[in-house]
Specification:
Order of helices and strands: HHEEHHEHHEHHEEEHHHEHEHH
Strand order of the largest sheet: 3-2-4-8-9
Structural class: alpha/beta
Helix content: 40-55%
Length: 318
Amino acid sequence: MKKIIKITLLNILTIILIVLALEIGVWYCENERLVLSKDEYVLKNGFFPFHKGMYTFNKDLSDFFTGEPNKGRAPEGLEYKNKKPIVIFGCSYAYGFMLNREQTFSYKLSKLTKRPVYNRAYESWGSAHMLYQARSKYLYEQIPEPEYVIFLSMHDHFRRLYVMTFMSGDILGENFYLRYKEKNGELIQIKNTNKFLNIFKRLYIFQKLHHFYVNNYILKNEDYTNGYDFYFKQLSESKKEMQKHWKNTKFVFILYDWIKDEDTILNKLENDGYIIINLPALVNKDLYAKEYILEKDYHPNEEAWNLLTPIIAKELKL
């Protein structure tokens, strides 16, 4: 009996040491990856600490979207009083990553249409963050009923439906992404409250394996069709939540880049009441050409919004 206990304890210790070695290896390699990619946080602060502590998304929207550092974009065009506003949701594309205020889609749309525009997008966000806001009282306290709600979609939103952490910095920072799961037909926010499961979720190696699984099995190397139903569910639920407060608002889905069998998701959304603007079908330009993206990044630059904003405004008859 003592021998069995000794062997068991030895095996457990061996497993712990192997996991620890893997954790240190992943931690070091991911930090080095960030250094090579000139990540702002690592260059300024050095390597991420080893398992500094877990953070689960629980954004306080009461003081967000003020235009202050790391607090989103402030509303544009509040001086225009005679037209109903527009609200924009999405990720860093809609937010205007690395762009000055005057270079962003929201600013240009406000100036072009002479109406208030509320930019409720932020870096790395997606459809889940639209739903999160739609279920928050602050959205309706901060914004009067808009004429249009716009969701700007891009290809990586489908990966974001499933990953527990967004990218390398979030893996190392244990910054868990906002996700939902479907239970009994309802979308329930995953809050990571199970302390036992969190022991495994927090492991860097577990996160890396989960990313590999999402990218190669759920989405099959950028075949996003498996995610269309879940994506539609989040967008449709967001619309239903907002319609409880905004009875006369029209909802717009803008597709920024080509995806496989895009008519599958576009038709579902159109049947649900969304106005569809398919930019790749409307614009005879490569939106990822050098003239339309940031110098060292694939995000839209000001020239992209100079091109696209009048097209979007025309499609909506603004």
